Amino acid sequence: MRARHDYAEPFKIKTVEPIHLPSRQTRAARIEEAGFNVFNLQSEDVYIDLLTDSGTTAMSTQQWAAMIKGDESYAGSRSYKALSAAVADVMGFPYVLPTHQGRGAEHILMTMKVQPDDRIPGNMHFDTTEGHIRLRGAHPINLLAEEGYQRASTHPFKGNIDLDQLAAELSKNRERIPLVLMTITCNNNGGQPVSLANLRAAAEIAHAAEVPIFLDAARFAENAYFIQTREPGYENHDLRTIARECFSLVDGCTFSAKKDGLVNIGGLLAFWDIKAFEEAIQWQIPFEGFITYGGLAGRDLEAIAVGLREVINPAYLENRIGQVHRLASRLYEAGVPVIMPPGGHGVFIDAGEFFPHLPPEQFPGQAFVVELYLEGAIRAVELGSAAFGRRDPTTGEHIAPRMEMVRLAIPRRVYTDRHLEQVAQAVERVYQRRSDIQGFDMIKEAPVLRHFTAQYRRREDD
How much is the CA Rg of the chain, to the nearest whole Å? Predict the structure, then answer.
């Protein structure tokens, strides 16, 4: 089955939210007041918001209708039964704990499994996952296959884990590895998918070493779509079948419902094994709430239950991924260094290649997101030296990640292609004057997840 991207949206717009474009003078004032950190901007100062695809979905009429049925009972909520049934139907897992969002599920899993100085291998951990691992005093180990680091590589599954490195890591450090965690799709390097063959092999390697393997399944449906359209032998499999096969290979998953749950808040932690489920309950109750609500209202559970079934609709996914593909292709044709082939939830720009004159310690990705906001009141997010770099605790020197990315995350069912044309034009204007743009110094930072609250100073101000 080939992906189709040349048709209209499979929905009509029923409710609208007004947006406006603030003046250039206003934008300049607001970004300076924000310490040149777009996380500190107010939403009313943003015209097109591509900061994240997490929790920014436009929900469907079916989801809004389901929310009316929400059972707000503290214990034994029938809305929990609706969520559990949807998880069993779409994912297969018989045991599920709702959480307030994905990082709540991560917190429970890491508290259960991870001890100081442990090593947690995966294809490429995202920022909050790395944060949870480091907060436990452990080490996130990224084992992304080499083609995943190559922007120009045309490999169809650039989110795959390097199987030889995984086997070597498990052989060398088995006693320090409580679990393997695979992210689908792989967020850091472009929303790139993981093939079923790679996931199956990784699970076999982990289980041979008697190590459980979990999925960060925030974008499982987008990953299933890529398997269907790119992996030989799966073109005639429906998306639900593909998703179920992925989940059948692992021991459980964390899930941010704010992505492929198509809701604005919520998450879950799911298991095949009842003993793991019962252990997780001991940490869920004090941190998230009782088993059958987990930090969420009953109406939220109902919305997730509907969203889980809607997200594997092929018409939805063809439109969703097609919109991302069109923006990426538009920028690629203009010469902008975007990751190709495009991923599922956003367009990723190589900021290091975009600004070859800016070294990592001058935060080229941050320079890009600031300039994009100044150019068009468009908010994107840096996923490079600010998000994934850190300082050496002894020398204070900057340690840069391998990739200097900026992500234009596309909210689900929110913006039209005309909005994204405005984005493309603004990116092109920044690209045309890229050689004149200066970098930044970070003047305030937290020890973990520093990019959320960091403050910067333009280097030209020195």
Answer: 21
